[in-house]
């Protein structure tokens, strides 16, 4: 991984001869990720794993409790209900990007952490099921079931999450086969602790299974129904997978994505638009006795030298400040070449990549996150908020499968106008395309769907515009408004949630159950309601820069820095902040 970033920096240095070879690098001795909650005598603050919420404002709570058993979890909910406190469940690392996990108010709030409620894992071999405490980490769960001879079929690609947190937000990997790539579609049962009457000691435990009318609401609940105590998931007998990546041209993505997903059980596609490259993941199950002991240690989730992460960020800031499109394109090219060279992080023997296919156990091929365990003082996850490392947005849009082809065609048109404007995203992971199946979960996908993820530079300051930000704003608006894509609940900038309630046919059923289980809205807050109901908040100067609004006047962008509110180039209804060197303040609203 280290050499990847060195390539990156070398590329930047080449195109920027004035690059200061000794940037101000603040190096700290970071290792494993920090707790998202920091408390002192006056209360606690909650961060997400990137260290910044969408609005960059801190989230406060009066207190936090760390139950270790189900009864302690029930008592915590009971205490909150009895004392009229507002509650949010937080997890060991709190990954949600939207402010879902932030409770209402500073003085009457309680965080209930599942960090220490993480040891119970019961495997029911006869019925191919596992039941875990909600704080159990995904990696611990995978290792436990694999060592007992079973596999979890679906999981997100990042293993730092907890089982309660990941199902609450609809987290997924990629598959259209069987029950599909979303973990909540493999849930057989759930225990949820909800507010109750005095005679029920203020909190009661509900055990929900498939036929229960509450089950489909509880499978993906954003934490607003109550505290999930246990999750029961289906298992399969342990199996292996064989993965190859085909780095090829991007000419036919819109024609082949459906067949690709049908042909390979764990298919995905990564599109690097500026490089006219698509990377097809050929990923299928193979028998347990197939030879190979490979792992997938995705390069984006490997530990990086802190010094290099900070240098990369410094270089990226410089390219932004100097509006160096060429610089971004050069670094995008070296990034892609490096990924090709190392098979994206696949390792045939667990150590290095020597060629395709890479065959390994499901437990080592689906999910990774080796930066979580970095023991060296000078390495960390590249986005660790304690260092001045990578800082980016993550947009994730979920399309009905049938509409996805036309979305790709529109993005291609936009790309063809000026491919170099797309280099920024190719410095991260391009556009990752994954597949999830239709679900019964009320806040899950009602039809077979295609998911895209893309990461892109976020400025240090909320009011600093970004190079070619209009391109990504147009892609966002194409996805969420022209093609009606739904936002991933735990990712995205606020604008992605506008009107989200109208995109879920069973939204009203979910809300009815929310009112029934938590009539006093103990588990809700302004922020989670903003996401759930997709409310538009008041616009202010610069709000479109961070995706807190869609611009309708120039002042929502940054006219003082030359960014004006303009219509989209392909999607004319889009309103984006575009740079113009000629001074004009005409509004298009
Ligand atoms: C580097 C990275 C990679 C990622 N990769 C993927 C991916 O491949 N696929 C994908 O779909 N997502 C991915 N995500 C998003 C991630 O899956 C979600 O953010 C997930 O919700 C995080 O789980 P968590 O344990 O951190 O939960 P949190 O973020 O802490 O919690 C999420 C929400 O669930 C609630 N909650 C948590 N536990 C409970 C509980 N026990 N009871 C009630 N409510 C609860 C919280 O209050 C909060 O509202 C990624 C995120 C990051 C940072």
Automatic annotation (TrEMBL):
Residues 1-21 form the signal peptide. InterPro entries: ALO_C, FAD-bd_PCMH, FAD-bd_PCMH-like_sf, FAD-bd_PCMH_sub2, FAD-linked_Oxidoreductases_BP, GULLO2-like_C, GULO_Plant, Oxid_FAD_bind_N. GO terms for molecular function: D-arabinono-1,4-lactone oxidase activity; FAD binding; L-gulonolactone oxidase activity. Pathway: Cofactor biosynthesis; L-ascorbate biosynthesis. It holds the Pfam family ALO. Gene3D superfamilies: 3.30.465.10, 3.30.70.2520. Keywords: Ascorbate biosynthesis, Oxidoreductase, Signal. It catalyses: L-gulono-1,4-lactone + O2 = L-ascorbate + H2O2 + H(+). GO terms for cellular component: membrane. The keyword Iron-sulfur does not apply. The keyword Ribonucleoprotein does not apply. Residues 57-238 form the FAD-binding PCMH-type domain. One of its GO terms (biological process) is L-ascorbic acid biosynthetic process. Belongs to the oxygen-dependent FAD-linked oxidoreductase family. This is L-gulonolactone oxidase. It comes from Lupinus angustifolius.
């Amino acid at each position: 991984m280290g050499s990847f970033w060195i390539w990156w920096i070398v590329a930047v240095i080449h195109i920027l001869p004035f690059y200061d070879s000794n940037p101000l690098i603040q190096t700290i001795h970071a290792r494993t990720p920090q707790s998202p909650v920091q408390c002192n005598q006056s209360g606690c603050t909650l961060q997400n794993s990137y260290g910044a919420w969408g609005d960059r404002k801190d989230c406060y709570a009066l207190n936090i409790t760390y139950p270790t058993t189900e009864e302690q979890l029930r008592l915590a909910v009971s205490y909150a209900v009895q004392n009229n406190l507002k509650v949010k469940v937080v997890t060991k690392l709190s990954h949600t990007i939207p402010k879902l996990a932030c409770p209402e108010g500073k003085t009457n709030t309680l965080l209930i952490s599942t960090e220490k409620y993480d040891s119970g894992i019961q495997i029911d071999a006869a019925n191919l099921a596992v039941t875990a405490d909600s704080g159990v980490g995904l990696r611990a769960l995978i290792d436990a079931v694999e060592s007992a001879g079973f596999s979890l079929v679906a999981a997100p690609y990042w293993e730092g999450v907890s089982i309660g947190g990941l199902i609450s937000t609809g987290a997924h990997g990629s598959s259209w086969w069987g029950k599909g790539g979303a973990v909540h579609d493999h849930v057989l049962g759930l225990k949820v602790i909800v507010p109750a009457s005095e005679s029920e000691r203020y909190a009661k435990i509900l055990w929900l299974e498939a036929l229960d009318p509450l089950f489909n609401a509880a499978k993906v609940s954003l934490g607003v129904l109550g505290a999930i105590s246990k999750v029961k998931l289906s298992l399969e007998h342990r199996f292996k997978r064989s993965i190859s990546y085909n780095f090829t041209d991007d000419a036919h993505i819109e024609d082949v994505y459906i067949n690709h997903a049908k042909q390979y059980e764990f298919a995905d596609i990564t599109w690097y638009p500026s490089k006219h490259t698509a990377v097809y993941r050929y990923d299928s199950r193979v028998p347990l006795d197939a030879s190979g002991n490979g792992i997938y240690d995705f390069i984006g989730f490997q530990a990086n030298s802190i010094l290099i992460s900070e240098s990369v960020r410094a270089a990226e800031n410089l390219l932004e400040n100097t509006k160096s499109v060429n610089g971004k394109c050069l670094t995008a090219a070296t990034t892609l070449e490096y990924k090709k060279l190392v098979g994206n992080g696949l390792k045939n023997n667990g150590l290095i990549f020597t060629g395709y296919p890479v065959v390994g156990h499901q437990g080592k091929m689906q999910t990774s996150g080796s930066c979580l365990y970095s023991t060296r003082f000078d390495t960390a996850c590249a986005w660790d908020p304690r260092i001045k490392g990578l800082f980016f947005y993550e947009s994730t849009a979920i399309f009905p499968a049938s509409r996805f082809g036309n979305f790709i065609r529109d993005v291609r048109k936009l790309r063809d106008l000026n491919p170099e404007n797309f280099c920024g995203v190719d410095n991260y992971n391009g556009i990752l395309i994954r597949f999830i199946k239709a679900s019964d979960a009320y806040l899950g996908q009602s039809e077979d769907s295609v998911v895209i993820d893309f990461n892109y530079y976020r400025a240090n300051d909320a009011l600093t515009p970004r190079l070619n930000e209009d391109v990504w704003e147009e892609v966002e608006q194409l996805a969420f408004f022209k093609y009606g894509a739904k936002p991933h609940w735990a990712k995205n900038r606020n604008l992605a949630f506008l009107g989200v309630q109208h995109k879920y046919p069973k939204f009203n059923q979910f809300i009815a159950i929310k009112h029934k289980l938590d009539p006093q809205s103990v588990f809700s807050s302004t922020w989670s309601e903003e996401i759930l109901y997709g409310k538009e908040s008041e616009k202010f100067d610069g709000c479109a820069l961070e995706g807190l609004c869609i611009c309708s006047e120039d002042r929502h962008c940054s006219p003082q820095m030359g960014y004006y509110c303009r219509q989209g180039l392909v999607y004319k209804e889009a309103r984006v902040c575009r740079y113009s060197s000629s001074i004009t303040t005409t509004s298009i609203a």
